[in-house]
Design the sequence.
């Protein structure tokens, strides 16, 4: 058995993907260890989840830094101390900049709630519903300097439910948790 991959999760929302990954690590379904949870929103529910799971939290606020580079240097310092090898974005909602991209080349991964390249950016489920598409989905991809433009690693289609954003978001979340785990497992066993 290979050594567990050390991962840092970046999240700023409710953290259901964080919880699914944490659970998979605990059950041995994912050969990884979450060494840090990075957030730019200390009030987010994901922080509570991380604390309950005894995962160290780095709450680093962009507004406390003069530049994006300085903000990311502070994150990088915390990452170096944690020993993280991969950065796993799960609802981080910010573009990753050159400091982190250079420090972790091809080692940053994101999950996005649409079939990219359709509906990149914010509110992907709302975009799908308002365009009236019948099928949307989930994409796991490597992160580059663009907005949801990196190499696609895995995708799964999800039906739009009753033209309703909340119901569709729920169906998407249910798919995300399994797809992220499976894709990370593949990445970490290469
Ligand atoms: C997910 O839908 C993910 O695809 C997107 O942000 C959402 C995060 O949800 N990037 P959660 O906080 O993990 O529940």
Sequence:
């Amino acid at each position: 058995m290979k050594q567990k991959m050390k991962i840092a999760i970046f999240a700023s929302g409710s953290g259901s993907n964080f919880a699914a990954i944490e659970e998979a690590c605990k059950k041995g379904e994912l050969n990884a260890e979450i060494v840090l949870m990075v957030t730019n929103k200390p009030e987010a529910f994901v922080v509570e989840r991380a604390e309950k799971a005894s995962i160290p939290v780095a709450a680093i606020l962009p507004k406390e830094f003069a530049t994006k580079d300085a903000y990311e240097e502070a994150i990088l310092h915390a990452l170096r101390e944690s020993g993280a090898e991969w950065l796993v974005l799960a609802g981080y909602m910010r573009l990753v900049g050159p400091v982190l991209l250079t420090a972790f080349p091809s080692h940053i991964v994101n999950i996005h709630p649409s079939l990219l390249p359709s509906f990149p950016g914010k509110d992907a489920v709302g975009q799908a519903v308002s365009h009236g598409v019948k099928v949307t989905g989930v994409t796991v991809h490597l992160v580059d300097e663009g907005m949801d433009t990196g190499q696609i690693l895995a995708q799964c289609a999800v039906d739009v439910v009753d033209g309703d954003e909340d119901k569709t978001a729920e169906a998407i979340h249910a798919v995300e948790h399994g797809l992220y785990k499976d894709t990370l497992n593949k990445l970490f066993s290469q």
Q: What stands out?
A: The helical segments are 16-27, 45-52, 68-82, 98-103, 124-131, 165-188. The beta strands are 5-10, 32-39, 57-59, 86-89, 108-112, 135-142, 152-159. The chain is about 40% helix and 20% strand. The pocket of 5-O-phosphono-beta-D-ribofuranosylamine is lined by residues 11, 13-18, 90-91, 111-113, 173, 176 (CB under 6 Å).
